[in-house]
Specification:
Blueprint lengths: L34 E2 L14 E9 L5 E10 L4 E5 L6 H9 L6 E6 L4 E4 L11 H5 L1 H5 L4 H14 L15 H13 L5 E5 L7 H18 L2 E5 L3 H7 L2 E5 L6 E6 L14 H16 L5
Parallel strand pairs: 4-8, 4-9, 6-7, 7-8
Antiparallel strand pairs: 1-10, 2-3, 2-5, 9-10
Length: 292
């Protein structure tokens, strides 16, 4: 489900000194060289960002130091993916952005009224059929019965589940359940869409198919996407930029521009250029002393 609280205002780009752009693929260096140690906007995102992390740190009550000085931004029409070692604070970033947790230091600026959140689990209500699960957020936001039914039907069509409106979750595959979760969030028309390792528990074939469907959705909706994953291949395939986090306390140590234009053919995953960039991200991750 998504988080919805009152929006924060006055979004501003954090003061970051280095830039590494050229998302469209006109690079003067091979992809492996296209990394910077600080946040860099993609070339077509000069507008005010939709999501900004500025010096965000998090220390939990048990003294676990999860995050330290995390700064980056995500603009509308940009897909930013974070990879990093287990326990480095990736999911904590999303929880802070959504308002489910608070930062110890720094701040996050985002319009939470238009924020969608996809959890690792589909979190469906087993006693509700698909249509009623997709309507849930509309109910919580007090949409009229007619409006939430219309939005739910549109979202179900968008994720390719027409004909399954009256099926219950226990009759659906893992991939279908995740599509229901995505459809439910789409009913809020989010301008910022956050994904917390949503496909990690799925088989490889289903995962790749949902990667392609997520890209189609992103191209169509042009939301600001923040995606968390342990898969380097998934990160490179989906993203305009990939950020690498250090072990705990997590900080962004590298950001790689992804030069491949959208839409992306599934066969992109098997090209030398893709392998080179994925290898560079992997090398950066290994240099942290951790693995995804």
């Amino acid at each position: 489900m998504s988080s919805a609280t009152k929006p924060e205002s006055n979004l501003q780009e954090p003061d970051l000194s280095r830039q590494n752009s050229n998302m469209a693929g006109q690079t003067s260096e091979p992809p492996a060289a296209q990394a910077s140690h600080e946040e860099s906007p993609a070339t077509n995102h000069a507008a005010r960002p939709a999501l900004v992390f500025s010096g965000v740190s998090k220390i939990f009550p048990d003294s676990t130091h999860a995050l330290e000085g995390v700064s980056f931004s995500v603009s509308q029409g940009e897909f930013f993916t974070v990879v990093g070692p287990s326990g480095c604070g990736k999911s904590t970033l999303l929880r802070i952005a959504s308002g489910l947790d608070t930062a110890t230091a720094g701040k996050v600026e985002v319009d939470r009224e238009h924020l969608g959140y996809i959890f690792q689990d589909a979190t469906l209500l087993p006693w509700r059929p698909v249509i009623r699960n997709v309507e849930l957020l509309g109910e919580l936001h007090h949409f009229s019965t007619q409006e939430r039914r219309k939005l739910a039907q549109q979202a179900i069509k968008t994720v390719g589940l027409e004909g399954f409106e009256n099926h219950y979750p226990d009759t659906l595959s893992g991939g279908m359940k995740m599509r229901v979760s995505i459809a439910r969030t789409l009913t809020l028309n989010p301008s910022v869409f956050m994904f917390d390792e949503p496909f990690g528990a799925l088989d490889e074939i289903t995962r790749e198919r949902l990667n392609e469907e997520t890209l189609s959705l992103f191209i169509r909706e042009q939301f600001a996407g923040l995606f968390i994953t342990h898969s380097i291949s998934e990160a490179v395939f989906l993203s305009t930029r990939v950020g690498v986090m250090s072990p705990r306390p997590g900080k962004i140590i590298d950001i790689f521009d992804v030069p491949f234009p959208y839409p992306r053919d599934p066969e992109l995953r098997f090209t030398p250029e893709f392998a080179e960039l994925a290898g560079a991200v992997s090398a950066s991750l290994r240099a942290t002393g951790g693995k995804a």
